Amino acid sequence: MPDVKVRFEIDMNKYPQKLQHIVDDLAFFTDQNDRISILIDYAEKFKEVPEEIAKRPFPDDNKVDFCESEAYVWVVQNNEGKIKLYFAVENPQGISAKALAAIFSEGLDGETKENMLKVSTDVVFEIFGQQLSMGKNLGLTGILQLVQRQVKKLD
What domains does the chain contain, in order, with CATH numbers? Predict the structure, then answer.
């Protein structure tokens, strides 16, 4: 019988590489207080949508459903098919929404349409932990869902 070697490659990355790196880093913080500190650091990195993309009052088409922080999303595609995300969070206390927006900006900017659409809403639990309230989960997953709806509309 011939010597046959079978090689299996398993994709350990559920998300695009930069986002996967962030999720992996957060997984090291099993203590909830440590994770909260890291997420607050991300919230402090949050950058508001520039005026050349959108001005107040923001259109309802960009508003995230069910988000208590009144988050807004814009998706812009360049000539090479790479995507840039922009966010606004109207509630100054919207730390979780700002953190997720900063994580998505860092982890997803420059990705293709196809990679953006592969991201599962499970990423919210992987970032924030399983103890999210239903309301907060709805708002945060709503941010990703609006990103993906806008990505689908791109030509």
Answer: 17-53+61-153 (3.90.1010.10)
